[in-house]
Design a protein that fits this description.
Elements lengths: L1 E7 L13 E7 L5 E4 L5 E6 L4 H10 L1 H20 L4 H26 L6 E4 L6 E3 L5 E4 L7 H13 L8 H10 L3 H20 L1
Parallel strand pairs: 2-4, 5-7
Antiparallel strand pairs: 1-2, 3-4, 6-7
Helix pairs in contact: 2-6, 3-4, 4-5
Amino acid sequence: MMYSSHIRLPFSLGEGYPDPVWVPVIRSRRKTVSLFLKPDGTFLVRGPLRIPDKEVTAFLAQKESWLRSHLAKQRDAADADEAGRLTEEEIDALIREARTDIPARVKRFGPVVGVSWGRITIRKQRTRWGSCSAEGNLSFNGLLMLAPPEARDYVVIHELCHRLEMNHSARFWAHVERVCPDYKVQKKWFREHGPALMKRMFG
């Protein structure tokens, strides 16, 4: 047995979406309620046969952050496809720019973190935005030049803090927060936008 209805989304998704948004709800012989996001940006809820509308509405309200985050990732992926893959010349230009920009940030934040550092390298990296070796050598992704300045600051601070803690313990994050109080905002930016940037370099 299965039947469907529509429930009003309890929050606005902003520009590009109607207000209100009516969400399809498919009820069947299942025990859990789940939100499904389709590749085209539409979404629906699947839930048990007897789940009340008010419980579905409450469930959707709890999923607001998740939905916004995943919709943003879809938009970024579409924007990356539209912008196209970076040419070798464009990548080289980003790396040259980063060789000036990133060391300047290291020199600014190193004394604030309270650490020294070794060699600074700018590279094409598939999965990392930055790294710090046990010897204190720092490596950064040239694609950082496509990120906002505050996001670049966060990556630099993150790697410098590894000079204090070569791990991601609570003490490490306390060091990061001391210098970059909004680090969670920047981490979220990379979660939401980073994959699309990487796609422009590596496809």
